[in-house]
């Protein structure tokens, strides 16, 4: 069974080679954290980060193409991420759904490609503010989960991240009850759909900071976080990793 707790950092389109010093600082402060730590940097930094981390943290991509190779200018195959040192790949982030028009069936196809390359797929779901205001959150999340989950998903090869679009990079977070409600729905749907659905890890993402991490990690069925802005600096991500280790 996969270790339960996962602190994942999504650097998005931020960072250069010099930024890898933040990982040195993180590991110097917490050489053996009590949870898995995953950093998903821009693709160009996957290989140098994996070499530098020497297995002490996990490294992931932020997207992959559904095909294993071919004429797809500018895209990256899951096999190439794996070859560079990645073990995970984030898929279906709301920024890719918005910026690149990714649909849930496309996310499922990418996740199947990730699994073929032996990558763990971190599949992101989340409602917009308008959808929440309209009372559609649970319906939207259920539909995204149903359509984004690939054939062959297991607790070992797939992680689900709930990221309300309106909480990403805004400093706003849902209430604990709102997070608990969505995670309970995800758990119920996963248990119904998969033999090991009770074990699949559910991350919360959206304005997770050192100040709110412990409170969020205490919520039922929150097995970790997908952290954006606060994953860029060891001074911010370190306390989040520590809070999850202690949860
Ligand atoms: O993938 C990470 C999420 O988009 C959260 O980003 P944030 O922590 O900057 O709000």
Automatic annotation (TrEMBL):
Pfam families: TIM. It comes from the Bacteria. One of its GO terms (biological process) is glycolytic process. The keyword Transit peptide does not apply. SUPFAM superfamilies: Triosephosphate isomerase (TIM) (SSF51351). Its EC number is 5.3.1.1. The keyword Isomerase applies. GO terms for molecular function: triose-phosphate isomerase activity. Pathway: Carbohydrate degradation; glycolysis; D-glyceraldehyde 3-phosphate from glycerone phosphate: step 1/1; Carbohydrate biosynthesis; gluconeogenesis; Carbohydrate metabolism; erythritol degradation. Its main location: cytoplasm. It is an enzyme of class 5 (isomerase). The active site is at 93 (electrophile), 163 (proton acceptor). It catalyses: L-erythrulose 1-phosphate = D-erythrulose 4-phosphate; D-glyceraldehyde 3-phosphate = dihydroxyacetone phosphate. Substrate binds at residues 10-12, 169, 207, 228-229. One of its GO terms (cellular component) is cytosol. Keywords: Cytoplasm, Gluconeogenesis, Glycolysis, Isomerase. It is found in: Cytoplasm. Belongs to the triosephosphate isomerase family. Homodimer. HAMAP family: TIM_B. Involved in the gluconeogenesis. Catalyzes stereospecifically the conversion of dihydroxyacetone phosphate (DHAP) to D-glyceraldehyde-3-phosphate (G3P). This is Triosephosphate isomerase. It comes from Paracoccus tibetensis. The gene is tpiA.
């Amino acid at each position: 069974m996969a270790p339960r707790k996962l602190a994942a950092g999504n650097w998005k389109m931020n960072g250069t080679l010099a930024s890898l010093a933040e990982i040195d600082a993180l590991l110097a402060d917490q050489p053996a954290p009590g949870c898995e730590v995953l950093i998903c940097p821009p693709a160009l930094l996957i290989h140098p980060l994996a070499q530098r981390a020497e297995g002490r943290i996990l490294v992931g991509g932020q997207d992959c193409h559904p095909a294993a190779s071919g004429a797809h200018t500018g895209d990256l195959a899951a096999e190439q991420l794996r070859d560079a040192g990645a073990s995970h790949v984030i898929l279906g982030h709301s920024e890719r759904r918005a910026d690149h028009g990714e649909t849930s069936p496309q996310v499922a196809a990418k996740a199947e490609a990730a699994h073929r390359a032996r990558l763990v797929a971190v599949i992101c779901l989340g409602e917009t503010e308008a959808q929440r205001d309209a009372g559609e959150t649970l319906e939207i999340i259920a539909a995204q989960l149903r359509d984004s989950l690939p054939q062959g998903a297991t607790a070992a090869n797939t992680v689900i991240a709930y990221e309300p679009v309106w909480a990403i990079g805004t400093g706003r977070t849902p209430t604990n009850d709102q997070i608990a409600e969505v995670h309970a729905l995800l758990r119920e749907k996963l248990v119904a759909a998969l033999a090991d659905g009770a074990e699949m890890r559910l991350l919360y993402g959206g304005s997770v900071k050192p100040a709110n991490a412990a409170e969020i990690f205490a919520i039922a069925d929150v097995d970790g976080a997908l952290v954006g802005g606060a994953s860029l600096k060891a001074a911010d991500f370190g306390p989040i990793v520590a809070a999850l280790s202690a949860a």
